[in-house]
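Suppose you are handed a protein chain with no further information: no name, no annotation, nothing but its sequence. What can you learn? This example shows the usual starting point.
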Amino acid sequence: MLLLRLLAYAAIAFTLASVSAGAQAKDPKMFAIFCDGPYALCIKAPCSKDIVVSGGKQTVECSCTVQHGWSMGPAACIRRVPITGANGVTKLMSTYSNFYNGPNQNMTCKGSSQQWANCYGAPCVTDPNDPSRARCTCPVRTGEMVTLGGGCDKNRCGEMWSAARPNENEFANNNFFSYMTKNYPYYPVNPPAKVCGAI
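A reasonable first move is to predict its three-dimensional structure. Written in structure tokens, the prediction is:
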């Protein structure tokens, strides 16, 4: 009974943390907690251009990958433990790692009207048809952004990507690499992604 109660509390805490993190678009410079476990990785994810407006907030759905290992996120590790429901769908959080840095470069898209998705800390659910994929609900931001998506093709800046502001992206890249090489030197980690600068 006690175990079930603790699991229920963890589920509630996770849900509240996920919704809060997603709605407020956390800044990784202020919320950067390292955990080892399953997570959704969205830094190069394509997102729907169909913006959903609810409660004055704009969100889009992004197609992310489910990864296992170390990641950096805006919530305590206990609040990032995935929860699988009776329907087999798992709830988890979108956090950051540099897993995709190797073959990909940072594409910068400028312009005050540039729209993109901020998935850091966003709530996600696994795809029932493909557990290696996750659908994440991410708040929409406007302005200059950096993403690993788009293949450094400036013509693709008009698409909706999961991304970050330039200073947030720089911090996440450098902080993840620095922390992991210092604390877990034998863990495979990619260096900060190179910049191709689309436009």
